[in-house]
Amino acid sequence: MKIETNHIVKKYGDKVVLDLNGQYSRLLFESGKITGIIGSNGSGKTTLMKIMAGLISAIDGEVRYDGQTFDQDIAMKITYANQRPVLFSRSIYENIAYPLRIRKYPEEEINRIVRGLLEEFEIADIQKQNAKHLSGGESQKTALARALSFSPEVVFLDEPTASIDPKSVQVIEAALKRRNADTGLTVIIITHNLAQAFRLCDRLVFLNQGECLLYDTTEKMRQAQNTTIQEFISFNAF
Amino acid sequence: MQYILDGFVEAFYLIFSFDPEIFQIVGLSLFVSLTSTLISTVIGVPLGILLGINNFRGKRTVSRFLYTFMSFPPVIIGLFTALFLARSGPLGQFRLMYTPTAMIIAQMVLVTPIIMGIVFNHASNSGYDVVQTGKTLGANRINILTLLILELKGGIMIALVTGFGRAISEVGAVMIVGGNIKGFTRVMTTFIAMNNNMGQYSVSIAMGIILMTISFLTNSILYHFSEGAKYEDRD
């Protein structure tokens, strides 16, 4: 699914937190690509992602999904996960099965998909545990497995690997890359980890104080002459 | 001291004599309190969830009113209900005063804010996140409502336990609007209060034991479910 944003503006009270104008007023997130959104805290990354995921509304501008506006049909094809996953008070298995149950998948199909994801995310041995009592890495893997269970066309990830162990990061990145290569999953990911952004992404959006300073390939991002971007890259190097 | 012990002995004799009047009083108490709790649940749970998960101007004021109503004295609620249901009151034409229906209405007014307030508190703490997560997974309105009820069931059960406990044990409101009429509006609490005033401690103690046993059993059942909701699937 191709996503296009056009002059998005968002305010909280009187404060403008996002205003995509000028050269980057229109952003095109191509189908089957992994796009990273980077920038300092308060740059508007999460706001942009939540607007694209249909969780909050912009006060101006629009988002188009394959040319259509957001509706329940689109909502059934996209998903969103953040760094503090909200898991339901039921087993890991049932958490992952939830999106399939509301889509009325047959029980055998649910079982096959969930078992595959439990293996892929290396959480099969704890599948019966209540998801409310998991470690950070286990929670994040469960949330991502749940988000991917119904084979969405687009997945929005807001710092999915922040504060989890390197092994879990590796498992999550591998799963995303595999899905992207095998099924053409469109991934839009916010990360503060530039190494991860360069490792995973085809293109990067750089936001600063609610404005887009660059939207280009990772290679172009490395070579950017903009001082703010250079500072961000140099800080990340340490 | 002896009269207290005698009271207990007589109380057990009374319980096991299977007096029809006692059964009628216990039955009416349960009917009135369970009915009022049920109606309060139907009103209070959806409203509590709705207020809890939405952010709107004046939410703090609403929550302050709600918490104030939660601690309203039953006699005041009984008094206001009586003013509305009395012959000369706005609802006087329905002739509900001194009937079990009036007692149910009074207890409903008492219990609804309690159930609503507890559910509101739970929904405010975690309801919004559940709604947002449901949306990100493609849940429609009905899916989200079901999800919310399941995720908040521990809190809802606690609200029911508290609400029923308040209803079955209050005496002020049912005394005012029911009138403690023998065989018609007499419930356990008004029976205890009346016999205590008459110096008949044994029957008061007997009814007290029955009331505590029923409260204990009902709360145990509801508590079992609320704890089950909290710890289910935990290995």
From TrEMBL, chain A:
Record's keyword terms, sorted: ATP-binding, Nucleotide-binding, Transport
Coiled-coil segments on the chain, per record: none
Example of a GO MF term: ATP binding
Key word Transport present: yes
Entries under InterPro entries matching the protein: AAA+_ATPase, ABC_SmlMolc_Importer, ABC_transporter-like_ATP-bd, P-loop_NTPase
Matches recorded under Gene3D superfamilies: P-loop containing nucleotide triphosphate hydrolases (3.40.50.300)
Ranges for domain ABC transporter: 3-234
Keyword Nucleotide-binding carried by entry: yes
Alphabetical list of Pfam families matching this protein: ABC_tran
Protein name (record): ATP-binding cassette domain-containing protein
Source organism: Acetobacterium fimetarium
UniProtKB/TrEMBL annotation, chain B:
Stretches that traverse the bilayer: 22-53, 65-86, 98-121, 142-165, 205-225
Cross-referenced InterPro entries: ABC_perm_TupB-like, MetI-like, MetI-like_sf
Pfam families per the UniProt record, alphabetical: BPD_transp_1 (PF00528)
Source organism per UniProt: Acetobacterium fimetarium
Main localization of the protein described in the UniProt heading: membrane
Protein name, UniProt field: ABC transporter permease subunit
Location of this chain's protein in the cell: Cell membrane; Membrane
Topology in membrane: Multi-pass membrane protein
Family: Belongs to the binding-protein-dependent transport system permease family.
Ranges of residues in domain ABC transmembrane type-1: 26-222
Keywords: Membrane, Transmembrane, Transmembrane helix, Transport
